[in-house]
Structure formats: C-alpha cells, structure tokens
Amino acid sequence: MAKEVRRKARIKNVVKKSGDSSGQVQSLCRALSILNVIADDDHGMTMTDISQRAGLPMSTTHRLLTTLQHERYVRYDNDQSLWKMGVQAFIIGNAFVRSRDIIATSRPFMAALMEKSGETVNLAVADQGECIYLAQVECRQMMRVQAKPGSRVPIHSSAVGKALLAAMPVEKAKKFIQMREFERATDNTVIDQQALCKEIEEVRETGFAYDDEEHCVGLRCVASAIFDEFGEPIAAVSLSGPMARVGDDRFPVLGGMVKECAAEITAAMGGVVPKSKKTCFCD
After folding, report:
1. Cα torsion for 128, 134, 137, 138, to the nearest 10°?
2. How far is Cα 19 from Cα 17, in angstroms, rounded to an integer?
3. Torsion (CA) 107, 111, 112, 113 in degrees, nearest 10
4. In a 3-state reduction of DSSP, which class is residue 119?
C-alpha cells in the first residue's frame, strides 16, 4: 500500500510538472513518467495500462514508448505483449551506484535528525567484528557525545553494531555471534550468546537497536540500518546522548526517528528496506 501511494505521488508530480511553465520540457517529463510507471512493475505492462497510470493519451504513450525503445530505455516482449525496462535504464542506474557517496548522501538527513531530536547523530559501517564511525553531526547541547571518524566500537555492545547484525541474513548473523567470545565493557554489556540472539531478534521486529550503557557508562544510543539496492545492510545511523536526556520513555520515540532517517537515506542511496520477516533467530 505504501509503495503504491509513493508511486502515484511520484507520477502525479512528474505529470504536474509537465504542464507547468517553470522551464520543464513537456515531452521529457512525460517520457520520465512512463519510465517511472514501468519501473514500478516487475512483470511488464501493456500500453493501455501504461497510458492509464501515466495519465497520458494512447497516441502520446505509443510515440514516447517507441522513442524510448529506440534508445533502449524500454523493450517490448513480443511473447508476452508487454513493455519492460530496457538495458540502457540499467546502465544509467548503475552509473548512479558507482558514483554514490554514503557520507555525502547521509549528511543532510543526519543534520535534520539532529535538529529534530536534539541529540548527536552518527554514521557507521561494520568491519571485522567492529563498527567504524564514518561521520558525526554533533548536537548543540553542552553535554554531548563525540565519536571521531575512524574510531571503532564493538558490534555486540553498540546500537549501530546490533542494528547491522539484525539486518544481516539470519544464518550469517548467528554464525558471527556463535564464533566469538564477547568482552564486557560495562555491567550492562550483553556477552551471553543466547541473550544477544534474543535481543537481535527483537531488533529485527522493531527495526531499531538500543545501547543501554553497554559500551560506555552513562551513554545511551539507538540505531537503525541503511540498505543497498539488494536489501543488504551497508551502514547504520544512530542517535546518542547521556542518560540524563535519553530516559526509558524517550527510547521508543528516538527509535522511530532514527528508523525513519535510515529509511530516507536508504531511498536516497537507491536502496530498498527489506520487508520484515518473522523468523526465529534464537534456535
């Protein structure tokens, strides 16, 4: 349902622009609306369906499809009598994948999250059993957390680490946990494998992970994973602050904020947030 709403909004926006006087090229906007329509269907579409969804006359749709086919942005499947995305669309999309920069892409969303939450925002990736911080947007509070780019935290005792573990394929995450002996950093650090598996299972359900003074006394964090175009985790974004500001009642609120931010970064990176699956992580 959410995908359908986003699809209609995007197409409506393109079609609307095609008719205004803000310098938009009408034929180009209409062609783009056709590409958006076809891209949202995995199985191909008839010309009639494309015309209806794009809100264009059949004659215009046919003319634009023919042009797009000539340039290989779309292709016609004769066996199924359906229009589908062409190889040139893949080439253009792949150019975006090669040029994307997760730090530059994430920063505007991180800054907005900092303003909304009032807490420091971090970006991290997994590396050999640890997480490396890539970037940070500090809050304006006098008491705030600092994590320099390049600094590391253990996966098992950090919110970013647990968010990435939960986003991994189940067997991969379970193997990672079972092959390691975890060190205790504070009294709250979870080092028992079964207890950690149980916590990761909960993170898979909620979409965000907690660090309740598990890495550093007095510090609390909440994080959510960022995904690539294959639904694989590539990084995690987190909020961090002192216990004095991040109480138990604020944890779920911040969790929702960071989850939304991670989804926005995922979309900006051309990624896809995978659908949550009810799998037993603890067996």
Report:
1. 60
2. 5
3. 100
4. coil
| DSSP run (H or E) holding 210 | strand 209-212
Question: What's this model's pTM, rounded to 2 decimal places?
Answer: 0.69
Categorise residue 218: left if φ over 0, alpha if ψ from -120 to 50, beta otherwise: left
Give residue-wise pLDDT tens across range 168-210.
Answer: 988 888 888 877 778 898 899 888 888 888 899 999 999 999 9
Give CA–CA dist 134/126, Å, rounded: 10
d(CA 139, CA 144): 7
Burial of 194 (0-12, 13-18, 19+ CB in 10 A): exposed
Burial of 242 (0-12, 13-18, 19+ CB in 10 A): middle
70: how many CB neighbours lie within 10 A of its CB? Answer: 10
Q: Is the pLDDT of residue 150 over 50?
A: yes
Tally of CB atoms within 10 A around 62:
14
Q: How many CA atoms lie within 13 A of 28 on its CB side?
A: 5
Specify which residues 223 forms β-bridges with: 209, 238
Token digits of residue 156: 């098992």
Q: Tokens 């950093």 — which residue?
A: 185
| 209-212 vs 219-227, strand pairing mode | antiparallel
**The token pair that represents 24 in the structure block:** 């938009």
Q: How far apart are CA 110 and CA 219, in angstroms?
A: 19
